[in-house]
Structure of Rrf2-linked NADH-flavin reductase:
Amino acid sequence: MPNIEPSEVTGFKEGTLMNSSTDPAPSLEETALAAGPVDTGISIKHVPDTTETRKKICIVGASGKLGQYLIQHALNRGYEVVGVCREQSAVKLAHFGSRIRIITGPNDDSNVIRQAVAGCDAVLTVLVPFGMRQYALRTVQAVLAHAPPEARLIFSCGWHISRDGQDVYPLKFRAIVKVFGVLGRLTRFGDLNDQVQACNHVFASSARWTVVRGSDLEEGESQGVPVWSGHVGDAVLASNLTRRTDFALFMIEAIGNEALMRQAPAIVGRLSASALTHHTTLLGA
Ligand SMILES: NC(=O)c1ccc[n+]([C@@H]2O[C@H](COP(=O)([O-])OP(=O)(O)OC[C@H]3O[C@@H](n4cnc5c(N)ncnc54)[C@H](OP(=O)(O)O)[C@@H]3O)[C@@H](O)[C@H]2O)c1
């Protein structure tokens, strides 16, 4: 179980989502900061809007490593959080105490998901292809069926998922996916095709989805929001490594990012060698 203390995650570097194909545009906040204060001669005091309601998000698969990072980032941003996890895993979320609401049950149980996503502004689903009973596909079906129509739906998966068949995979990557695929099916541990089918189901839907495709993952302090590209094989992704906490950070950022609507961004660490090289090239171009 990962040890996610608040001190580990509050120091992360916030950033905007950068698409490798364009020069990263500054966020509104960055632009405002760069412009500095403007003396209008009028004193404006911030009056808290008491009618403002907290946004509510549901995290399906909350007790896993990615799920716990998602919870922490969501709490840091002031979201109200509902987490779904298997009954035996609820103990892994005990350290969040009363800061989150937990609903226990299988991720692919329609009744569990209906209850969990009610009234949510966003649903973040950790897609896992465990077992041989189409766990990931059934989870997607439940989320799509029960999430409010306006909710942002963010799903996690790996680079092996391709939306349009235009991804170009290194030989080693293809070999690993093949071996894991065969071993998973033989041992009945999991079925990678289940995740493929689940994502195809998402791609075909008219919901407000984003499928975030993670590279290989490592633990460690946040480097900030990862950079992304539309296709595996693009030079910026070559390092194939992202901090797990930043995978979660990207999913949280995607909630409010309209440019990622119905996109399947493949991500890589913002400070990875390929990301740094690519941006140097862009800046010099
Ligand atoms: N690991 C990687 O290197 C990597 C790379 C790219 C993308 N990803 C993506 O990242 C996401 C999750 O990664 P992660 O590292 O956070 O994985 P993780 O910690 O292993 O958690 C995955 C989830 O699987 C659940 N789970 C475990 N055993 C299960 C079982 N037998 N039946 C049903 N559910 C079970 C866990 O729930 P419990 O807490 O209840 O066990 C947890 O919610 C996936 O979408 C994956 O495709 C991972």
Residues 1-16, 21-50 have pLDDT under 50 and may be disordered. The CA atoms of residues 64 and 205 lie 26 Å apart. The chain is about 35% helix and 15% strand. Residues 171-187 form the longest helix (17 residues).
